[in-house]
Amino acid sequence: MKYIFTVLLVFSVSTAMFAGGFQLNEHGSRAMAQGGAWVARAYDGSAIYFNPAGLGFQKQGSVYVGTTLIMPAASFYGPTNQGQSTKNEMVSQLFTPINVYATYPVMEGLVVGIGINNPYGLGTEWPETWSGKYITQKIDLQSFFFTPTVAYQISEKLSVGVGMNYVTGAVTLKRMVSPGDAQVSLDLSGTGTGYNAGIIYKPTQDFSVGFSYRTSVKLDAEGTAKFNPTSVLFPEGDAAAALELPATAFLGAAMKVMDNLEIEADYQYVGWSSYKELKIDFKKNNSSTISPKNYEDAFILRVGGEYTMDALQIRFGYQFDKNPVTDRYTEPLLPDADRNGINIGAGYKINESLSVDVSYMFLKFAERTVNNTEVQFDGVYQSSANLFGVNFGYNF
Amino acid sequence: MNALKKLFAILALFSLAALVGCTDEAPSDLPKPGLGNVTINKYVAVGNSLAAGYQSSGLYKSAQVYSYPNLIAGQLKLAGASLGTFEQPYWPDPGNPDPKTGKAARYVIISLADPNNPVIGPKGETPTAAAPENAATLARPYDNLGLPGAPLAGFMDTVGTYQGGFGAAIIRGAGGLPKSQFRAVKALQPQLVTFWLGNNDVLGYATTGGTSPAAPTPLATFSFLYNQALDTMKKSVPNVRMIVGTIPNVTTIPFFTTIGPKVGAKLAAAGGIALYYQKKGESGVATGTTKFSSPASDPLICLTGSPYAALIGTVTGKFYKDNAFPALPAGIDTTKPFGVHPQNPWPNALTLDSAEIAIASKAVSDFNGSIATLAATHGAAVVDFNSIFTDINSNGKLIGGVKYTSAYITGGLFSLDGVHPTNRGAGVLANEIIKVMNAKFGTNVTGVDVSMLPALELPLGKYMTGDNVMPRIAPQSWDSFLKLWQN
Description:
The structure holds 2 protein chains of 2 kinds. Chain A is mostly beta strands. Helices cover 5% and strands 58% of the residues of chain A.
């Protein structure tokens, strides 16, 4: 346990640096069931996301495929700066980010793989005629990361891995504009590239530490803006925006505390401070709109573990997700708040090559009261989400 | 597989627990409407066109329902005030008739065929009623006593001289009801009165370019009348709580700030030629010239100048024809190019020059000083509309993601006549009054959600863009509007 405490001490110091935002944290049910504390082990294909070095220790080829059903709920009470305490409920939606990983050991110690997943995404929808209609009615942001990866086990104790991220992203945005009271629909899509790398070191049989880093990805998105009804007043037509998906780093340590119980604690840093503003350029009249965001760097603390009973594993975890949005910039487009997530799950080995993992997370957002916001839309946000994950694994 | 079943059972149980545990309770620190220790069973609004819900040069029901008094009444009811129906003199849409044409007086955007010159004005709608729909059936004074055009003197006026063009229809003194705003207040015995009069004591002077009337109400008269109003109201209505408002400086409204910059841009585009305009008191050869280096401030061009702004540089006597001058004033030669020659200058009636601006501004600051002093004397709360309008004029006002400004039409707060508020402008006024009421009287009346009020409708398709764009409002369209101050 000594190691764990040392690691935690390191974490508590670095929390002065300040994930939330529109990052998604579910990229494999085995990891998700353990609060995402996975960087120091990364035993399955999701290593491609969490830590590519994990592949170096994997002796078999594998296919690991899954999805997460995300059911968020949010309410906004306000706008209090207009003296309102009206409850506005976000429209119910279901999101299903996927994760697909394939790995193959090409020779002793050298493993290649490819992953497809959705590390960033966001969807909020509010009633069309609600009080915040000039801020947002609907946003849908999706990103797909295609990550070819190679890992090399340098020694019994040490493995490293690198990956390249080819990213496609698309965003749809709907809101009202004034004057004119027209609805603008913005559809943009684009691509970008990034890189990631990681290392796992196992000083003993029962202890490992891991670190991984993913660069930020700049998405240059282009598309169209449509206005209904239209007017020469509006910049109808071609539009473009650059969106930077933040860099992130994981650091963690895992320990086998009993023969059949492993636990891990991770710290994840997310460089949200790169998200200063959302600038949308319109070709018509060379005009643009700028929405300041001024996010702050954020972090996630993750702890979790796995208890093995023959073919069955019981998993549990907890995560604290510090949100990057300051009070001033909190808005219904992304009603963020600090999040506490409680996770449980299980894995079952059907036979030597087939396995199934399931996981559940209840994510509770801290109630957030904001005043004097940038968009002058003050009030109280209450949010939560239920997440169900399932993955199937095939080893060969 | 037994283990797998167990596993799912465990998962299901956990999920259920989580779902049950996440029922949200309403947050405790939200605005809760209430009246504190104050009892309000009757609220009466004393005022002018601003209180009446006059919009786009007309009184019509679909705008009147968003008058600031009606919005305040709605919020008072939410806070527990048992007001019953807040009675207003509703003119069914399309609203009151223009006395001259018999057609509805309100403005709409008529044509955008030429997007650079949108045509705005009455579009010949036939009124459905000559009097308020409930005038015959309501056997008591209206709760909204807003009299379009009424100056401060209108408050005590029992004859109709100062009641503006709507006194007979709204006060209905001839029908046996109390003959003045004051008498109506006394009859209704309200616990709350909003009293916002005095705008017209300077606005009539300003909107006619300092010509009709030729001066604002003298300060001594204003102070006397204001003191008399608050004093008699307090004495006649023992439990009244009064909220008064200061007079916004006229230079902050789009009626004065829209055309000047556009004329300036037009002259600059034509090679930087100067506008010749008549200064205060001039009716013949003009001595005023400007290249509009600071176009918004000196001189101010009235929105009534919009039909003539397009004629600058042409040989025309349209202004004198439109206004039925029996003969051209001495020195005027309409064969000279209009606006760019001292003998065919931009007319005084469409201009507020520096001397006139100074007179109007002094009147406003004098009146406001008097209002502050007298409000303190009589224990009335003061809403400083002058500061509020000045702040909006310089900084705009951000509400629910929208930046409202005092720009004509696109600003969202002023209706098509450039003087009177839109529904949302009225919402802003109501919220400012409610804020002061809560601070002064300890009530907890909640505000109006401005974003939820209907916005000024822009027509589909083309609309004005760019600096050279000038709205064009036909001269005769202003008759009804300007008549507000010409009793």
